[in-house]
Design a protein that fits this description.
Elements lengths: L4 H26 L4 H19 L4 H19 L7 H22 L7 H5 L7 H20 L1 H9 L1 H6 L4 H20 L7 H13 L5 H26 L3 H23 L2
């Protein structure tokens, strides 16, 4: 199975995603901001189509457009503080409008379907390099800003009073989410990327432990979901993104069931 280069590339991408998504996902879930992943995933589709239109790297174009969308969301939060869902709807509408317009125009130089459903087996060396760089950037940034990100996750106002640069960190976090999504769309697919950001964290939260334990558990669930989806999709001949999402959902259901059985 791993005698083929494309399978080795796919495994490398899977490991990167398994590490990266929970690093970002745990903060998104705890901030009760889960739908930002779905919104920025649709933004990444607009970035992909722009990259294909101008013959640039779709992953880099996706990162650039998704990062700008994330920054725009944070900018709009100043004017719609009580209407977060409205902000996400605005950005999602604009992104989908751009993507549909470009796809239907017939001017794209390649098919965008691979980015909708994901295809680990067609990952190129350039995709691997971009994935490695963005993953390293995101993980290092989370490590360096771990405590401050944790503070603003639980209470932004108290963090601001304590001297934490909340606005700067929120903009930085928008870049991290953009990196996580851009890294994942080529292999997992735009339609199911949100599942890999949220479902492993949802499973880990069922353990009802502290933050560090929950984070480590979400990493374990992420590895189990992605690697299981990787192998299963290879043997059944299905898109890896869909199989991975179903695997992650199955692990969540199993965790809930076991929790109910073991409850005193």
């Amino acid at each position: 199975m791993f005698s083929y280069d494309f399978m080795q590339n796919a495994l490398f991408i899977s490991i990167c995603i398994a590490i990266l998504c929970p690093c970002i996902g745990i903060f998104i879930v705890l901030k009760r901001y889960s739908m930002i992943g779905d919104t920025l995933a649709h933004s990444s589709l607009a970035g992909v189509t722009l990259g294909l239109l101008f013959r640039e790297s779709p992953v880099l174009a996706s990162f650039a457009f998704t990062a700008l969308s994330g920054l725009f969301i944070e900018f709009l939060r100043q004017y719609f503080k009580k209407y977060t869902d409205l902000i996400l709807s605005i950005v999602l509408s604009v992104s989908v409008g751009i993507a549909i317009t470009l796809i239907s125009s017939g001017h794209l130089h390649a098919n965008a379907d691979a980015y909708l459903f994901g295809s680990m087996l067609t990952v190129s060396p350039i995709d691997m390099a971009v994935t490695a760089v963005l993953s390293l950037f995101a993980v290092v940034t989370v490590i360096l800003n771990y405590h401050q990100l944790l503070y603003i996750t639980y209470d932004e106002e108290a963090s601001r009073i304590a001297g934490v640069h909340v606005k700067r960190l929120n903009y930085l976090f928008a870049f991290l989410v953009a990196a996580a999504i851009s890294v994942s769309i080529r292999s997992v697919g735009i339609l199911v990327i949100t599942s890999m950001i949220t479902l492993p964290v949802a499973s880990a939260l069922q353990l009802q432990k502290g933050f560090k334990t929950t984070f480590l558990a979400s990493l374990a669930y992420s590895f189990l979901s992605i690697l299981s989806g990787f192998f299963l999709s290879y043997f059944i001949g299905a898109a890896p993104g869909g199989v991975t999402a179903l695997t992650a959902a199955f692990l969540l259901l199993v965790t809930i069931f076991v929790k109910q059985v073991l409850r005193p």
